[in-house]
Specification:
With 287 residues, the chain is an alpha/beta fold. The protein has two domains: 213 residues, Rossmann fold (3-Layer(aba) Sandwich), CATH 3.40.50; 66 residues, Alpha-Beta Plaits. Helices cover 34% and strands 29% of the residues. It has a six-stranded mixed beta sheet with strand order 5-6-7-3-8-9, with helices on both faces. Strands 11-12-10-13 form a four-stranded antiparallel beta sheet, covered by helices on one side. It has a three-stranded antiparallel beta sheet with strand order 2-1-4, with helices on one face. Strand 6, helix 6 and strand 7 form a beta-alpha-beta unit. The chain starts with a strand and ends in a 6-residue tail after the last strand.
Length: 287
Amino acid sequence: MAAALVFDDVRVDDGGRPAIDGLTFETSSRHLLVLGAPRAMFEAVSGMRGVRRGRIGVDGEEPRAAAAAGTLAGAPLDPPMPPSWTLRRFVDESAALVGHPPAERERLVRDALAAMRLEGLATALLGKSMVHVRRGAVVAAALATGARTIVVEDPLAGFTDEASRGFGRVLVGALEDRSWMVFAGRAPLGSPFGTHAEEALVVLGSSLVAQAAPAEIAVRESAYVIRVAGPREEFAAALEGRGVRVDIRGDAFMVDVGSRTTTVLFEVARDTGAVIVDLRPLAGGFV
């Protein structure tokens, strides 16, 4: 069986500049949570944006080809939606683009609306619908393609904790029989995505700084992701000399300060002439 997601020396540009450059990893997990990645990475994985260099594989297929064939579908965050369309029409148009015959299309649309618990709102106008209803319609449109892999962009962004739990449970249930990837800025460990994802990837810029089960990443309270300008090698060596574990990940470091505080990082930066330009807790995406 092909790996669920493969990046091989991938560069993806956004506005003429690299949003990702040199990213390489592989995962066989069928339920994947991706934290901190630039939007261009979601777009590339879901087939909405091409790569400048390298290769992305989703179940062994190039994403744009998979999307065209109807085996992969993306659900972007709050895309433009025709305000005069009903939810049913929006979902039906998505199924029609894949080329399903009418009877099959009708079944797929009905099942997708039911999976997202939108049957009672099928005739509601998108322009008069609440945010969670419109987001549900976007996911339903992806489901109605019949794709076996669904890629979703930050579906809980801006929701209250209560709304996130409710919508998250619906979404995880709707995706139960599919492979899925959810891209998000953060996802609490106790959220539906945190508990149902087999694996989480933490991305910073062009670096994959962590790849493990969500619970394993969340408990690493002494681990930080850091980027520096200046003498990187000297900075890393000096940290190791102070007993800090250092793992170089592309243009970033993953460091574990153990029982120390982050003061040690700034002390070593001062001593070596390095400048810390980004510092964040590894587990920050789960709080």
